[in-house]
Amino acid sequence: MDYQFIVVRRSSQVTTITLSRPEVMNAIHPPMHAELQQALDAFAADAEQRVCVLTGAGERAFCAGSDLKFAAASESGVGAGKHSYPRSGYGGIAERFDLAKPVIAAVNGVALGGGFEIVLACGGQSARLRQRSGYAGRLGRRRRPVDRRHSALLSRRDPGVERGRLPRTG
């Protein structure tokens, strides 16, 4: 399948999904949400694929969260269509609780806001290449990093890891 905002590569048993909007620090907008949903659905349905790696294009960012300029330019405030998130949550992964295969975030730069949510949705399984991540705790100048209480609320449980069948990589 051809995608406009992501690149999907399959080699042997590994699917690599690259967020491909480096000009906006891989910020996610509704069309990209839909593509991520489709790519992760295809990964989940493919019995040959055993692990998925999510990464970002470019050197500056893994993902800077939601594309606020796109949302501001649209009439509805969320871009094309009524809903900004797919059925499996932010980036097609944040509320995907039925996926028993591991998804690893290869974080290559900043992971902010929704980008950090994607990293947390990978269940703590991340390869930190050059990582700075967090979210804005308050609006304005002050920012604070996410602590364990927040990450516990956002992280996806991986039933395979909990049963001891899949190795932890992070």
Topology:
Blueprint: E1 6-11, E2 14-19, H1 30-45, E3 51-56, E4 61-63, H2 68-73, E5 103-112, H3 114-121, E6 126-134, H4 148-154, H5 159-162
Parallel strand pairs: 2-3, 3-5, 4-5, 5-6
Antiparallel strand pairs: 1-2
What does this structure look like?
Helices cover 24% and strands 24% of the residues. The longest helix is centred in the first third of the chain and has 16 residues, at 30-45. The chain is of the alpha/beta class. It is globular, with a radius of gyration of 15 Å. It has helices spanning 30-45, 68-73, 114-121, 148-154, 159-162, and strands at residues 6-11, 14-19, 51-56, 61-63, 103-112, 126-134. The protein starts with 5 loop residues before the first strand and ends in an 8-residue tail after the last helix. Strands 1, 2, 3, 4, 5 and 6 form a six-stranded mixed β-sheet that branches. The protein has a single domain (6-162), classed as 2-enoyl-CoA Hydratase, Chain A, domain 1 (Alpha-Beta Complex). 38% of the residues are buried. The chain is built from five helices and six strands.
Helical percent range?
Answer: 10-25%
Q: What low-confidence regions span 5 or more consecutive residues with pLDDT below 50?
A: 135-166
What is the total number of structural domains? 1
CATH superfamily label:
2-enoyl-CoA Hydratase, Chain A, domain 1
Q: What is the CATH class name?
A: Alpha Beta
Assembly context of the chains: single chain
- Arithmetic mean of pLDDT: 76
Give the C-alpha Rg. 15 Å
Query: What overall form do the CA principal axes indicate?
Result: globular
In CATH terms, what is the architecture? Alpha-Beta Complex
